[in-house]
Amino acid sequence: MNATDGDGTSEQLMSGHTGRMLVSISLGWLIVSLGRQTLPPLLPNIIEDLAITPFQAGIGLTLLWAFYALLHYPGGRWGDELTRKTVLVAGIGVLMLGFALLTVATTYPLFLVALSVAGIGTGLYFVPMRAHISSLFVVRRGQAFGVNGALGHAGSALGAVVAIAAVSVTTWQGAFLPVIIGLGLVAVFIHRWSRERYVVSRVEFGLRDTVTRVFTSVRVARLVVAYSLYAFTNQAIIGFLPTFLRTERGFSPALAGTTFASLFVIGIVVGPLSGSLGDRLHHFTVAAGSLGVALAGLVGLLITPNTALVVGGVIVFATGMRAFSPVMQAYVMGIFPEANVGGDFGAFKTIYILVGSLGPSYVGFVAERATYALAFSGLVACLLTSTIILGWIAVQQTR
After folding, report:
1. For residue 360, how far is the Cα from the chain centroid?
2. Rounded CA gap, 248 and 157, in Å?
3. Cα 127 from Cα 145, distance rounded (Å)
4. Do 332 and 360 form a contact (C-beta atoms < 8 A)?
5. Domain map of the chain by residue range?
6. Can you tell me the distance from the alpha carbon of 322 to that of 271, in angstroms, rounded to the nearest whole number?
7. Out of 1.10.10.60, 3.40.50.970, 1.10.8.1310, 1.20.1250.20, which CATH number does the structure's domain 16-398 have?
8. For position 319, what pLDDT does the model report?
9. By CB atoms within 10 Å of each CB, which of 59, 98, 201, 263 scores lowest?
10. Residue 67 burial class via C-beta count within 10 angstroms: exposed 0-12, middle 13-18, buried 19 and up
11. Orientation angle between helical segments 108-136 and 341-369, nearest 10 degrees
12. What is the pLDDT of residues 240-296, one digit of tens each?
């Protein structure tokens, strides 16, 4: 733990050991996010090239997110019991394999396998990354998560740029070559700068104890429901927003890609500000308010066909959604014991990401039978319910 003086002065965000580790593992998250968010702008090309339906494309995205979710708990436990350096580097190796398979995916089954492998690698990487940041930062934890999230959003925004550039000069598969190279560099940085050893041994998962410890709390159960609805909405919108804008709002591919990128560009600014505000006020209160903002943006996005207003709705929606994650995860990390934070948070996140992984399949299913607008309209109820639950908890905590 580096917060030895209790005032956060040893918790450097951009220098020293804490800063090097925060930047290196966050750079890894930037590249992982770039790889994942290159997919949505490419979906129209993928659907045409592989001769698949929107529902089949949605299943592919669901597999990516489902395997990501399923590896959260084992990834967290391995990080707790072995070393986080071990699991982070292993996760990068699996990610490189998954994206390498995407570069040669010319059939639908191989496309599904590639996304599944990439999901496994992402799940192995994420929880040890967040747990390591949590152990490095205490006083400035919200800010550290904000920086980490901002770099992830930067990578996601770059995904749209890479997608547009790739299809203009090569096939959609070529978009993932820079991702593989970048991940290799990050593995070198983590290997060089981490003070931990590599440890390989058998790990007892203790799943029953974790489930009992995490999910028997009424407070945690409510948080899981609210977070699951948020995740379902988030993944549903991210997966098909470019396609929705192109097919139902008449956006050009470039404008749709740019608007999609704004979902994450907003997060570069909002994430750190939200984290800092949560550190000063209360993480949970800021999280509850941010969902209300996101809800307003989603409604605005759906009720107008005007191009400028649609873009405005996306920006408002993105502001609320990107403000939510840093403060909510800082709050959740704080309710788990330090010795088990990786595994406990991994179990918690497994549930809500599994639910969220169904979002793209839901949108693809409804859009194939009706419209993308109708599918997105159903997400209003999800976000509204989540906002009500968190607002009620926030009120209870202030009494």
Report:
1. 14
2. 22
3. 12
4. no
5. 16-398
6. 6
7. 1.20.1250.20
8. 94
9. 201
10. buried
11. 140
12. 999 999 989 989 988 998 999 888 888 778 877 887 777 777 777 788 889 999 999
Whether the CA torsion 370, 371, 377, 383 is positive or negative: it is: positive
Distance set, CA 155 to CA 26, 72, 104 (Å): 10, 21, 22
Contact 147, 15 (CB under 8 A): no
Give the three-class secondary structure for 379.
helix
Q: Report the phi/psi class of residue 251: left, alpha or beta, with left for phi > 0 and alpha for psi in -120 to 50.
A: beta
Which residue from 238, 208, 239, 228 is spatially nearest to 350, judged by alpha carbons?
228
Q: Residues 377, 246, 313, 267: is their CA dihedral positive or negative?
A: positive
Based on its alpha-carbon atoms, the radius of gyration of the chain, rounded to whole angstroms, reads 20
Q: Is residue 92 within 8 Å of residue 187, measured between CB atoms?
A: yes
Q: Write out the two tokens for 359.
A: 């979002």
pLDDT at residue 142 tops 80: no
| The two structure tokens encoding residue 306 | 């005007």
Structure token pair of residue 275: 């984290």
Residue length of the chain: 399
| CA quadruple 180, 182, 186, 188: dihedral sign | positive
pLDDT beyond 80 at 316:
yes
